[in-house]
Amino acid sequence: MSRKIVHWIFPNLNTLGGRSNYVKFLIYRFSELDFQNHIITFLPDGTNQEAFLNQHAVFYHTFDFNKSMEDIHTDVTIRKVKELNSLFLENKFEVLLIHSLIPGSFIYLKLLLNLVNPDLKIILLIHDLETIKYLANNKNIDLFISKNTFFICPSTYIQNELMKISPSVQKIIRIPHGASATGKIEKLRSYYRDFTFVGDFEQHKGLVQLVLAWARICNNYPQSRLFLIGDGKLMSFVKRLVINLGIDSKIVFTGWLNKEELNNKLDSMRFIVIPSIIGESFSLIAAEVQYLGLPSIASNNGALVELINDSINGLLVSPGNIDELEQALVLLLDDDSFVDKLSLGAHKIAESLLTPNDVIDRYLKILL
Fold first, then answer.
1. Which of 172, 240, 291, 329 is the most exposed place for a label (fewest CB within 10 A)?
2. At what angle are helices 284-291 and 336-350 packed, to 10 degrees?
C-alpha cells in the first residue's frame, strides 16, 4: 500500500549530525516500498543533498526559515504558513514525519499543525535530549498530544525522559536504530593490542578524558595504540593535547572512515571506548560492534546501559571519571581471558538486537 510521506527536516539533512544517516536510511527504505517521500527543508546552494534525493526519487520543498519570527502575526510568517498549508493540500500528504525541532522553524510548524487535515498522521522522532527540552519549553508537547502524535524513541532512556515532562503522553513507541549484521565476525579479541574511539570530537563525548587516562598508562603498553576515528570541533585541541602530553606515537588520528574502512579497522581492535559524559539517546556504534564481538568500555549513563552489561559484554564507568577509565583500560589490556569472555558476551547480545529490516517492520505498523 503506497503512502505519501512528508519529512520535516531543518535546517537540512547535513545538520542532523549522526542522525543524518538514520534519516537517509528511512527515506531510502520507504522509497523501496514505493512510498512517495517529500522533504520540507532549508536547502542552501552547494549542498550534496540534491544528488541523494534525486537518486531515490524524493521530492523536496525549500522554505527559508533561517530567521526566526518571534511575532506569529507578521506578514512574512503568515505568508509562509499559507504556502506550507497549500503544499499539504495539493499533495494530500498522509503522514508527517518530524525529524527536528528548532526555534527558527518551529513557529511555522506550530501554526501549520493547527491548519492541516485532522486525518494527517503525525510522527515525531525524538533523537536526543534537546528535542525533549524543547517539547518541555512553554508546554510545546501539549500541541503534539492534542494532534494524537506518535512519539518514536530510540531507547528506554529517552522514553522515560519524555514521560517525565508529560506523563499523559500515550502514543510512545520505542524503535531502536537497527544495527547491521553484515559485518559479523566470529572471532575473539585477545589477540589484538590496539583499541579505539569512534565518534564526533565534541566535549560531551568524553574524548579528552580518554586521552588523559591513556596518557597515564600508555608507556606500560608498548604494543598498544589508541585509534581515534572521527572528527569535530575538538580535533585541533585534542591534537595539541596529545603533542603536549608527549604521546603522539601512541595515538592515531584517522578522520572519518567509510563503512568498509571502519569495519576493517574495527576488525583489528581489542575493544572500543565510548566515554560519553552526557547520556546518549542511542549509540549505533555500541550496537554494531556487538556483531563484531568487540568489548566496550562505556559510560554508565543514558542508553549505553541498555546495550552494555557490566562484565558481560563490556565495562561500565562513571561519566568523565578519568580514574575509572584508567582502571578499565588496564583491565582490558592486561587480561586476555576476560577480554575473550566479553567478546563472547558481545556476540550473544547481538542476537537480541534489531536489524534494519526489523526497524522498517515496526515503522510499517504505524504507517499502514
1. 240
2. 100
SS3 210: helix
The label of the residue with cell 523536496 reads 60
User: The domain 195-350 belongs to what CATH superfamily?
Assistant: Glycogen Phosphorylase B; (3.40.50.2000)
How far, CA to CA in Å, does 119 sit from each of 72, 131, 141? Answer: 25, 25, 19
Q: Is the preceding peptide bond at 103 cis, omega within 30 degrees of 0?
A: no
DSSP letter (8 states) at residue 310: B
Query: Cα 268–270–275 angle (5° rounding)?
Result: 115
Look at the domain 4-178+355-367 and name its fold: Rossmann fold (3.40.50)
Residue 76's Cβ-count burial label (10 Å; 0-12, 13-18, 19+) is exposed
Band of the pLDDT at 72, cuts 50, 70, 90?
low
Q: CA–CA separation, 67 vs 11, rounded Å? A: 11
| Residue entry with cell 526489523 | 358
- pLDDT tens-place string over residues 284-320: 999 999 999 999 999 999 999 999 999 999 999 999 9
The helix or strand, by DSSP H or E, that contains position 227, with its residue range, turns out to be strand 226-229
pLDDT digits (tens, 9 = 90+) for 98-133: 998 877 778 888 888 988 888 999 999 998 888 888
Tell me how far apart the alpha carbons of residues 344 and 318 are, in angstroms, rounded to a whole number. 24
Coil, helix or strand for 299? strand
Mean local confidence (pLDDT), 171-179: 91
Residue type, 256: W
Q: Burial of 9 by CB count in 10 Å (0-12 exposed, 13-18 middle, 19+ buried)?
A: buried
Residues β-bridged to residue 174: 153
Task: Please tell me the number of Cα atoms within 13 Å of 289 on its side-chain side.
Answer: 33
CA angle 165, 169, 174 (to 5 degrees): 95
CA atoms of 152 and 154, how far apart (whole Å): 7
Domain boundaries of the chain, sorted by first residue: 4-178+355-367, 195-350
Instruction: Give the pLDDT confidence of 84-107 residue by residue, as tens digits.
Output: 899 999 999 999 999 988 777 788
CB-CB contact of 101 with 135 (8 Å): yes
With contact defined as beta carbons under 8 Å apart, do 36 and 3 qualify? Answer: yes
CB 33 within 8 A of CB 363: no
